[in-house]
TrEMBL record, chain A:
<keyword id="KW-0132">Cell division</keyword>
<keyword id="KW-0131">Cell cycle</keyword>
<feature type="region of interest" description="Disordered">
    <location>
        <begin position="87"/>
        <end position="113"/>
    </location>
</feature>
<protein>
    <submittedName>
        <fullName>Cell division protein FtsL</fullName>
    </submittedName>
</protein>
<dbReference type="GO" id="GO:0051301">
    <property type="term" value="P:cell division"/>
</dbReference>
Automatic annotation (TrEMBL), chain B:
<dbReference type="InterPro" id="IPR036138">
    <property type="entry name" value="PBP_dimer_sf"/>
</dbReference>
<feature type="domain" description="Penicillin-binding protein dimerisation">
    <location>
        <begin position="87"/>
        <end position="223"/>
    </location>
</feature>
<feature type="transmembrane region" description="Helical">
    <location>
        <begin position="49"/>
        <end position="71"/>
    </location>
</feature>
<dbReference type="InterPro" id="IPR005311">
    <property type="entry name" value="PBP_dimer"/>
</dbReference>
<dbReference type="InterPro" id="IPR050515">
    <property type="entry name" value="Beta-lactam/transpept"/>
</dbReference>
<protein>
    <submittedName>
        <fullName>Penicillin-binding protein 2</fullName>
    </submittedName>
</protein>
<dbReference type="InterPro" id="IPR012338">
    <property type="entry name" value="Beta-lactam/transpept-like"/>
</dbReference>
<keyword id="KW-1133">Transmembrane helix</keyword>
<keyword id="KW-0645">Protease</keyword>
Length: 113, 610
């Protein structure tokens, strides 16, 4: 009985040691992957900052007004004027197109209740 | 220790007498002694065992507790705190009220040299001078071949320049990352933003510090990493600001003025929607301050906040409003207006002679100095002063810019009768246009004190009531009449019911006295008059405009007012103010329920990795 117990305990210890070894390496892999991702996030953040800066540089009022002047022939954009404000209920919207008739003819029945 | 003998003589002798074996006694004593030794040994072994097990329990207990803590606590990334703190350490962005970027950071590189590591210093100096034309080759050669171990070459270089330096292939030329502050909109809102420079510098990083304006006033806030990269949202609207600068610039040129300032402020909140001062500068390349001469000649000078001008007749509404508040007069009270008026040895004149008597409304509408002085005399010096203090005209504005304290109004130290008289029509007390904006906003805000601010959407305590709502309403009504039939008729913009007051003040000479032909023309306005929402101040420095008769006019009515009218025409639609017209548009019954799409954000979702 005793040798069997010894054998079992030894195997158990070996198993646990192996598990701990693997777990240790998995943790380290996760940590290095994490820091990799962190670096990536930092890089992306930097890129994002650059893109935001570029976007706002491209949208600077000076450039936009130059573009408006260049494309005046096509777009005819002028500054907003006071007469361009209208309430929603002053607008005569066209009637929306009728919903397409469904082939099965079941849809109208569903609308009844 | 006393050892018990194995063969005690007395017992042996006694045992021999009785004929017993004395060896038994020895065996007995030996046994007792062994038992004692055994006991001792066992106790020591037990002690060791207890110690050992305690050690084990402690060790495993520690591991167990740690495991338990790990298992029960929120899982968090290891090392993330360190790294994200690094990411966040950069300066926060500054945006306008709609989230458009006004100031942000860009990563560039700085260039430095280790001359002792150089392979061919002379060639490196030559190549560098070719890449950067502003560097002096002879000096570089001297520095590189001398005994220096380290030197900066350029603070900020572009990626193209960096590649060119790489191409030199010199191992002694090194790059360090540099965070650079950029203002993508260039000149727009330059005075508000101020600018930034480098503080403590190292090879791997440099501190970005605010130098002026909001950048400096919020320096600590912007650098505080605990805000998680949240931007500072100013109350400025980029579109309105740039439109104001554009209109003001052309107005300034048209009126051949030296400088101009404009402020558009929300009445209810005191938030500044646009504030411009011309000439301006590019905060990306902030010019050096002037060391001599008049600081107001520098483009860095912010006329709206730092400029101390005698704002002239725009002040007249204050004593009149106060007198109506105290029920000393009503808009129809007759005021003696025979010009000139004598106070002590001084004479006070009107621009024209307006006859013997004017109603209080006409004093404002026709801008009568004498009439205003009479009203101020009814109030008395103490009450007049007290009201101006309450309007905030005695202290610097509370605006969040480092320049604010330099806008300390120039207040006369003593108030004899003549000072009280001149202050009532805006001479002898110099304040910034921003002071005037805050004071007019206070009148327009039903007499509740308004403090100007540049931060958007901040909860602030409600201002003190300095004027009764009734008097404030009457005052705005009078200002409206100035535009409909008074000195500011050119300011009538259909639908926006502008109410305002012109002010033309002679510029004081630095040596004392006043210039004859240099004025500061101001128009302070509130619109729409029936429910004031915005206050706008326009100030032109030394304007003059040719009149139809071939003469030259410098009055605010001919210079500042048309510019202000154009500003309202452009800006009011931009801030979403509808023109009020009598024209009735037909109301169309909806044929269906229109579905209004909720307005999307700017398409960027900010995520955090916490």
């Amino acid at each position: 009985m005793r040798p069997l117990t010894y054998l079992a305990v030894t195997l158990l210890v070996m198993g646990l040691a192996f598990w701990a070894y693997r777990e240790n390496y998995r943790t380290q892999a996760a940590i290095s992957q994490m820091s990799q991702i962190q670096r990536e996030i930092a890089g992306l953040r930097e890129d994002l900052g650059v893109l935001r800066a570029e976007w706002s540089y491209l949208n600077r009022p000076e450039r936009l007004s130059e573009l408006v002047d260049l494309n005046f022939e096509r777009l005819r954009l002028v500054p907003v004027e006071s007469g361009q404000f209208v309430d929603l209920d002053n607008i005569d919207y066209p009637k929306p197109p009728a919903p397409p008739e469904s082939a099965e003819g079941t849809a109208p029945e569903e609308e009844k209740p | 220790m006393i050892r018990t003998p194995l063969r005690p003589l007395a017992r042996i002798l006694r045992a021999r007498d009785r004929g017993e074996n004395p060896d038994e006694i020895e065996a007995e004593n030996r046994r007792i002694r062994h038992e004692a030794i055994q006991d001792k040994a066992r106790r020591r072994a037990e002690g060791r065992l207890v110690l050992m097990s305690a050690c084990f329990v402690l060790a495993f207990g520690t591991v167990g507790v740690r495991m338990g803590a790990l298992a029960s606590s929120e899982p968090s990334e290891p090392r993330s705190q360190v790294l994200s703190a690094q990411i966040m350490s950069q300066r926060a962005d500054i945006t306008d009220r709609r989230g458009r970027v006004l100031a942000t950071n860009l990563l560039t590189h700085s260039l430095y040299a280790h001359p002792h590591q150089m392979v061919d210093p002379v060639r490196a100096a030559k190549a560098l001078a070719k890449v950067f034309p502003d560097l002096d080759q002879a000096r570089l050669t001297k520095d590189f071949t001398g005994s220096r171990k380290f030197m900066w070459i350029k603070r900020k270089i572009s990626p193209e320049q960096m590649q060119a330096v790489h191409d030199i292939g010199e191992p002694g030329l090194l790059f360090g990352p540099r965070e650079m502050r950029v203002y993508p909109n260039g000149h727009v809102a330059s005075h508000i933003l101020g600018g930034s420079g480098f503080g403590a510098e190292g090879v791997s990083s440099a501190e970005v510090l605010g130098v002026a304006g909001v950048e400096k006033a919020f320096d600590n806030w912007l650098r505080d990493p605990s805000h998680d990269g949240a931007p500072l949202a100013l109350s400025i609207d980029l579109t309105v600001q740039s439109a104001m600068e554009e209109v003001l610039n052309s107005g300034m040129k048209l009126m051949s003025a030296k400088g101009a300032a404009g402020i558009l402020m929300e009445v209810k909140t005191g938030e500044i929607v646009a504030m411009a001062s011309l000439p301006d500068f590019n905060p990306n390349e902030r010019p050096r301050p002037l060391l001599k001469g008049d600081p107001s000649d520098s483009p860095l000078f912010n006329r709206a906040v730092q400029g101390q001008y005698e704002l002239g007749s725009t002040f007249k509404i204050f004593p009149v409003a106060q007198a109506m508040d105290l029920k000393l007069i009503n808009p129809n009270s007759g005021i003696n207006s025979s010009s000139p008026m004598k106070i002590g040895k001084y004479l006070i004149h009107d621009f024209h002679n307006y006859g013997k008597q004017l109603s209080a409304t006409d004093v404002i509408v026709k801008s009568s100095n004498v009439g205003t002085v009479r009203i101020a005399q009814m109030l008395g010096v103490e009450r007049q002063k007290d009201f101006l203090v309450k309007l905030g005209l005695f202290e610097p504005t509370a605006i969040e810019m480092v320049e604010a304290p330099t806008g300390q109004p120039l207040v006369p130290r003593r108030w004899p009768a003549v000072t009280s008289a001149t202050v009532s029509f805006g001479h002898g007390l110099a304040a910034s246009p921003l002071h005037l904006a805050a004071a007019y906003a206070t009148i327009a805000n039903d007499g509740r004190r308004v403090t100007p601010t540049l931060v958007h959407g901040r909860q602030r305590p409600e201002g003190e009531q300095v004027l009764s709502p009734r008097a404030a309403e009457l005052a705005v009504g009078m200002l409206r009449q100035v535009v409909t039939r008074g000195t500011a008729r050119q300011a009538e913009v259909e639908g926006y019911e502008i109410a305002g007051k012109t002010g033309t003040a002679d510029k004081p000479r630095p040596s004392g006295g006043y210039y004859k032909n240099k004025v500061v023309a101001t128009f302070a306005s509130v619109f729409p008059a029936s429910d004031p929402e915005y206050v706008m101040i326009v100030t032109l420095d030394e304007p003059s405009v040719a009149t139809a008769g071939g003469g030259e006019s410098r009055t605010a009515g001919m210079t500042a007012v048309p510019v202000a009218a154009e500003l309202v025409r452009r800006l009011a639609p931009l801030v979403g103010l509808k023109a009020r017209t009598d024209e009735k548009l037909p109301i169309v019954a909806a044929r269906f329920q229109p579905r209004v799409e909720p307005s999307p954000g700017d398409g960027i979702k900010l995520v955090s990795n916490k």
